[in-house]
UniProtKB/TrEMBL annotation:
GO molecular function: DNA binding; DNA-binding transcription factor activity
Domain annotation HTH merR-type: ranges: 2-71
Record protein name field: MerR family transcriptional regulator
Keyword annotations: DNA-binding
PROSITE patterns per record: HTH_MERR_1, HTH_MERR_2
C-alpha cells in the first residue's frame, strides 16, 4: 500500500517539512513518486519514520540518527554497530529517566509539604471559628 506525504506525516507525527528535511539529509530514502510526481511512501517507509520519531523523542541527535541510517543502508554487516548505537542511546535515556524521577520525587515531596501546611492552616482556622 502507498501513502501520500500528508498521510506519512500524519502517521509519523512529523510535519511535511520535516519529512522533506529528513529526505534531504539522508535519514529517509527518496520516496517513490506517483505518475503526477508526488511522493508516495510504503508501509515500510512509515515504519522507518515512526522509528526515527521515537529516536528524536528520546533525544537522539540528528547526527547519530544519520549514522544509524547510513549503517542501515550498508546492510546486515552493520547490525552490531547499529545495536551498539541503540544500546548507548538507551543507557542515556535510562539515565535521563532516573534523573527526571529523582526530580519528580522532590516535586512530590514539596507538594505534600505544602498540602500539609495548608491542612494545618485550615485546622487552625476551624479551631478559632
Amino acid at each position: 500500500m502507498t501513502h501520500s506525504i500528508a498521510q506519512a506525516a500524519a502517521h509519523s507525527g512529523l510535519s511535511i517539512d520535516t519529512l522533506r528535511y529528513y529526505e534531504r539529509i539522508g535519514l529517509v530514502d527518496p520516496p517513490a513518486r506517483d505518475s503526477g510526481g508526488r511522493r508516495t511512501y510504503s508501509d515500510a517507509d512509515l515504519e522507518w519514520l515512526v522509528f526515527l520519531t521515537r529516536l528524536r523523542t528520546t533525544g537522539m541527535p540528528i547526527r547519530m540518527m544519520r549514522e544509524y541510517a547510513r549503517l542501515r543502508h550498508l546492510g546486515t554487516v552493520t547490525r552490531r554497530a547499529r545495536q551498539q548505537i541503540l544500546l548507548d542511546h538507551r543507557a542515556g535515556v535510562r539515565a535521563r529517566i532516573a534523573e527526571l524521577q529523582s526530580s519528580l520525587d522532590v516535586l512530590d515531596y514539596k507538594i505534600d509539604f505544602y498540602s500539609g501546611l495548608m491542612a494545618g492552616d485550615e485546622q487552625a482556622r476551624g479551631a478559632t471559628a
